[in-house]
Each structure stands twice: as structure tokens, then as C-alpha cells.
Amino acid sequence: MKIITRYKEDELFVAENEHGHSIHIDMRHPEVKSSLAPVEMMLAAIAGCAAVDIVAMIRKKRKTFVDLIIETTGVRRDEHPRGLTHITSKYTLVSPDTSLETFEKVAKLATDKYCSAASSVKAEIEVICEVKQPAEA
Fold first, then answer.
1. What tens-digit pLDDT sequence spans the chain (137 residues)?
2. Residues 114, 83 share a domain
3. Which of 82, 89, 97, 112 is the most buried (most CB within 10 A)?
4. Which segments of the chain does DSSP mark as H helices, in order?
């Protein structure tokens, strides 16, 4: 898996994967911001990752799926690095024939067992920084 991130303008970058799909990374002030900041993307990644599994499990149980809303909040440290200390996802499933008990089991499985994004933020991941000069033209 590889992402190439490029400078677009001050406080704005574009990240692109190997297949050409891209997303803007926006660190500008809220009044001019048009996309998510990196930590916001982490919260969205956890919610999106769990969402895929929740929908798949509900459908596998042959339940009626209408909608899924996930409100994910993060609490950050006050000092630098301002990493996340707590992440809470509140799931709302619209399904006329799925019990709260079934939904709770599915949501916990998705978040705690199957979600690679949530697993990654819980893990000790080695982050390596390498630098290089651009190739001579």
C-alpha cells in the first residue's frame, strides 16, 4: 500500500493512492477549509472501516438495511504532539428488523475485531522517517 502526498498550496495537500484515487488534506482555517485535516481523516477512516463491516454483517444476517449514521468524536492532548487520547463512535442503524442486541454485537465486532483502521490506532506501529534529495534534472 502506498500513498503519494504532494503540496498544492500553503496548508493544502493532495494524497493519491496507487490507483489514482485522491483526497485533499486541508489544514487551513475553518472559514476557508474545503476538506478534512489529517486527524479528522483518522476518525473518518475508523468510522468508514467499521461501516463497511457493519453493513455487510447486517445483510449477511438477512436483515433489512436502510441507513447507518456514525458520529465519531476524538479527544486530543493539549500539548504537542496533539495526538488522540480517546475515540468514541456512536452508531445509529435504521433497520426495522434488527434488534438492538444484534446491532450492538455487530458494531462491536466491526470496531474491535475487523476494522483495520481502529486496530492500527490501537497498535504500536513503527513510523520510519527517510529523506532524500530530488533526482537531478
1. 999 999 999 999 999 999 999 999 999 999 999 999 999 999 999 999 999 999 999 999 999 999 999 999 999 999 999 999 999 999 999 999 999 999 999 999 999 999 999 999 998 889 999 999 888 76
2. yes
3. 89
4. 38-60, 100-109, 116-122
Phi, psi values for residue 27, rounded to 5°: -105, 10
Say how many CA atoms lie within 13 Å of 50 toward its Cβ: 30
CA distances from 89 to 9, 38, 51, 67, 71 (A): 32, 18, 11, 16, 6
The CA radius of gyration of the chain, in Å to the nearest whole number, is: 18
Domain span at 5? 1-35
Angle, in degrees to the nearest 10, between helices 100-109 and 38-60: 130
Please report, for residues 102, 107, 124, the alpha-carbon distance to residue 50 in angstroms, rounded to integers and kept in the order given: 15, 7, 20
Same-domain status, 68 and 124: yes
CA torsion sign, 25 to 34 to 90 to 47?
negative
Show the cell assigned to 95: 433497520
